[in-house]
Design goal:
337 residues; alpha/beta; two-stranded antiparallel sheet; TIM Barrel; 38% helix; globular; eight-stranded parallel barrel
């Protein structure tokens, strides 16, 4: 017997899609996408400042934390069921240089923060960027030769940076620089040094975006970068086929997970990546997205329910997880029901 097409089975008034929307319990029962605290990674800024925390003007509710405060907040995240944090160092200008030398110091801020968190909370995952922009005086993600960010020299430094981060206790190395070939060479470096268990989450699709400015403000790299931009190595936001090529290359080089950044303006890219490759795929709800929502909520233009709505949108589009500055607030809301 041949089944009839669904369209011939009937229509209103027999078919009423609102029936399943009538009650809260039935809405939960038929929900196609479920967001939990286990889907969240919390990016945190760490500083050597005197105060326990410093507010970030362009990111209301976010702070730069000293290592003791970072340890406390990581415990809070773990108690809420957040599986991992991402640590970003606020490097003093005196430690920045043209070559980003501080990135290779085993006692630099990010390495000390990773080691301290791992001692206090060994069960939580830690992600570290492999990139030089927090450490360079010019604010670029690599070393500059003849006015251009040099790919291969930068990759060699990134390999060494990744190794010292792994030695400090980092669980996930996240190359965010967009240099060609860096994933494979970082994988080789980690494996050769006995860190085959350390994962790589590649910023495989990272666009040259205006949504990063509050992040650069938080790190102090915005003033370093000045009027320069990163379009010679980050992707053109008009391109989508190129994004699939970037992901394919990073997976071939050994990436365990891939990321699309920014998030909300690039949901179409996220969906294409997940559909094409079916690998662990993450989105980064970047600082500009966070700041826009926070600003609109503070002014009463949006209800704070949009926080969960926006994160669910990433999941619906195909993300296995989301890096978000809303992680703590979202996890608390999810716990409260």
């Amino acid at each position: 017997m041949t089944a009839k097409p669904f369209t011939s089975l009937g229509a209103y008034p027999r078919i009423r899609l609102r029936r399943n929307r009538r009650d809260e319990w039935s809405r939960r029962l038929v929900a196609e996408t479920v967001l939990t605290a286990a889907d969240l990674i919390w990016p945190i800024f760490v500083t050597d400042g005197a105060a326990g925390r410093e507010d970030i003007a362009s990111m209301p509710g976010a702070s730069r934390l000293t290592i003791p405060a970072l340890i406390d907040e990581t415990g809070r995240a773990a108690a809420l069921g957040i599986p991992a944090i991402a640590i970003f160092p606020v490097v003093p200008p005196a430690l920045k240089s043209a070559e980003g030398d501080e990135a290779l110091n085993p006692e630099n801020l990010v390495c000390r923060a990773v080691a301290a968190v791992k001692r206090a909370h060994p069960g939580i995952g830690i992600l570290c960027d492999a990139a030089l922009d927090p450490f360079t005086a010019h604010g670029h993600d690599g070393v500059i030769r003849d006015g251009y960010v040099a790919n291969d020299e930068t990759v060699e430094i990134l390999c060494r940076q990744s190794l010292i981060q792994a030695q400090a206790g980092c669980d996930i190395i996240a190359p965010s620089d967009m240099m060609d070939g860096r994933v494979g060479l970082i994988r080789d470096t980690l494996d050769a040094a006995g860190f085959g268990h350390v994962r790589i989450m590649s910023y495989a699709v990272k666009y040259a975006s205006g949504f990063y400015d509050p992040f650069r403000d938080a790190l102090g790299s915005k003033s370093s970068l000045g009027r320069s931009d990163k379009r010679s190595y980050q992707m053109d936001y008009a391109n989508s086929e190129e994004a699939l090529r970037e992901v394919a290359l990073d997976l071939a080089e050994g990436a365990d997970m891939v990321m699309v950044k920014p998030g909300m303006p690039y949901l179409d890219i996220l969906r294409r990546v997940k559909d094409r490759f079916a690998v662990p795929t993450f989105a980064y709800q970047v600082s500009g997205e966070y700041a826009m929502l926070k600003g609109a909520i503070a002014r009463g233009w949006l209800d704070d329910r949009v926080i969960i709505e926006s994160l669910t949108g990433f999941k619906r589009a195909g993300a296995d997880g989301v890096l978000t500055y809303f992680a703590i607030e979202a996890a608390e809301r999810l716990k409260a029901g």
